[in-house]
Amino acid sequence: MSAKPIRNAMTIDVEDYFQVSAFASHIPRESWPHLACRVEANIDRILTLLDTAGIKATFFTLGWIAERYPAMVRRIVGQGHELASHGYAHQRASDQTTEEFSDDVGRSKALLEDIGGLQVLGYRAPSFSIGSRNLWALDVLLKAGYRYSSSIYPINHDHYGMPDAPRFAFYPNGKEGLLELPITTVRLMQKNLPAGGGGYFRFFPYAMSRWLMRQVNERDGQSAIFYFHPWELDPEQPRQKNVGFKTRFRHYINLDRTETRLRALTRDFHWGRMDQVFLGGQ
């Protein structure tokens, strides 16, 4: 008999195209309510994709989005997916004071629980903005009632990253603190190579992404954590013309290939929700 395949965690960061951190200096926050939202249609595509594959996932959802699309949030919950928090207004944890961060994560948790009707256990900081300089944020999350975070990315990146952090589940502030679940990396040539989705999934050939994740399952014997955004399935989204080449390249590369690659990913690996994979849920 073959061994039971390792179950990995499929996650979605629920935000719209105009809310990404890389556009923050180009799209004023006060303009958000006046822009055409595309998140609801994209989430419906994702829900159909997951339902076809028989997969339950975790949706790290912005409070700002949930407030405007409560029926969408209820569809996510109603189809058996885990509802988790991405904060309220997509502000980096590293840019907030302790008081501001506490208000943001508390507000988003209460809002999501009110709309979804279930306890929210997980949190993911926008732009993976928890690291060595603000580990206090994990204590704030614990006090707010969260059980886990997926906010530390153990890589070198120009916008985020804590490369010396453990690659797999750990307790940054001790066993009595919050459980941290880092996005998946593969250790190659004494460096951590990103292997858990986002722009890298669109940039690398699919065969490479598949190989990297198999290394984690087969060589490390660990569950992988994969993430993507609804706007990454949307090549028809409005294009921002006033951004630099690097930002434009990172955001728009291979948007037209994401859905096909995701379908392959759902076939090639075994998937579940974050709470099922790491907290012992069923």
Give me the count of strands. Answer: 10
Radius of gyration (CA) equals 18 Å
Q: Please tell me what the overall shape is.
A: globular
How helical, in percent, are the residues? 25-40%
Q: Which residues sit in consecutive blocks of at least 5 with pLDDT less than 50?
A: none
Structural class: alpha/beta
Terminal-residue CA separation: 23 Å
Q: What is the count of DSSP helices, taking H or I runs of 4+ residues? A: 10
Mean pLDDT reading? 94
Q: What is the beta-strand fraction?
A: 5-15%
Describe the largest sheet. 5 strands, parallel
**What's the order of the H and E elements?**
EHEHHEHEHEEEEHHEHHEH
What would you say about this model in short?
The chain is an alpha/beta fold. It has ten helices and ten strands. The strands form three sheets. Strands 1, 2, 3, 9 and 10 form a five-stranded parallel β-sheet that branches. A three-stranded parallel β-sheet has the order 4-5-6, with helices on one face.
